[in-house]
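Example record

The entry below shows one chain as it appears in the dataset: sequence first, then structure tokens.
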Amino acid sequence: MATSTTIYIINSTDNSNQFSIQPRTQDGGADGVQRSTDLVLYGNAAENWGEKFNENFYRLLENFACDESAPGVPQDEGDIGGPGFGINAPVAGQLWFNKTDEVLYVYNGTAWATTVAGGDISDITGLQAALDAKVDRAGDTQLTGVHQYGTHLFFNEGNGSIAAAPDIRFGAAGLLAADASIHINIDGDNSGGGNFVISKGALNTSDGNYTPLVTVQNDGTLHVEVANYENQVTNDDDVPNKKYVDDEIASEIAGLAIPVGFVTGDIRATLRSSADAGWVMLNDGTIGAAGSGASARANNDTEDLFTLIWNTISNAWAPVGGGRGASAAADFAAGKTIGLPRTLGRVLANMDTGNVLGEYEGAKTHALTASENGPHTHSGSGTTNTDGAHTHNIAPYDVLDDGGNTNQGQSDSNDANQTSTISSSGSSHSHAFSFNTNSSGSGTPHNIMQPTVFVHYQIKL
């Protein structure tokens, strides 16, 4: 029978630990001479033990419920601000209800662990077997560690630290048979990023990551990164990636004549006086390779247009500097230039029978030649003035023989004063005649241009 001098010896369940309580003293609490547990234990003959005795039962019922001072670490009397409050001297197996995340923890002798996993539990056969039963193929599960952090359950590779990227790792078959393992990672770095990643293979030591297969970013963006994944989409319920969709659309429209924009040799009108990227101004100049000295553009990006002009327009209308060689490629490589279609001051016209591609004709003005003037006549009429009564003088004439001239009708000396005047009255009459009109016109060339508005033209390289 204990006396007032009896020392109490307190033993743990497995007898691995013990401590003593002196008579009339208290272990733990604000007045304890020592603190062996988070309960208040009394020695023999101690006074007023009933209150603390009842308090012990209450704390056991609530599992020492208090908030955490740090993730997974309970508050102590320094955090709460009162001696004996909080958890100050836990023993192995002691429970603690973390009021912060509402999770029950157990003390393993060195640290607190949640009761869901309790730290690294790879040695628990029952949990391993239960997980094995949930997979489709025997041997798929290679679980080595399960941890809980707050309300999250983590599976990792058994390194005992939830700071490392937690994942579910298992061997794979089928599409991924060549890979040693697959990793399912949810917020692997505990950064709160919220990303979900399925990765494969061994850890990449250069960046500390596995090779990603599928990633769901915290903004909801889904990335499928399996090599050649587009070739694996064969069923209606398979999720295609962008490349698969692009390839399918391309294959469907491959045979359709859908405009795809401008191509080499296309010409367009513009109000801009300088060429856009990928174009050159049609300024009656030349193009050629860099260093060719071409006047419109000397750059290697002109090769396609150089080749098109070389092959479609004759040298008469698109002359090559130094003469044409064996091919467009040879001339371009030799640094020769080729003339652009001559469009300055000209109207573009559609090809017709008898025309030559690139040919340029016509003029803004033209002076008519005689042969271009149509056949025509000039008519006119006129008369001489009417001449009325008039006289005619005649020489002497021997009408009768006067003895001076034996020949009648001949003049002689006796006829000197025998001049005769004959008066007669003539009627009105006319005389036909020819004439030339005065010259008119100057032969100056005249404008023959159709109604026109002037803009710039560019041609696609």
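Notes for this example: Residues 151-227 form one domain. Residues 117-124, 131-180 have pLDDT under 50 and may be disordered.
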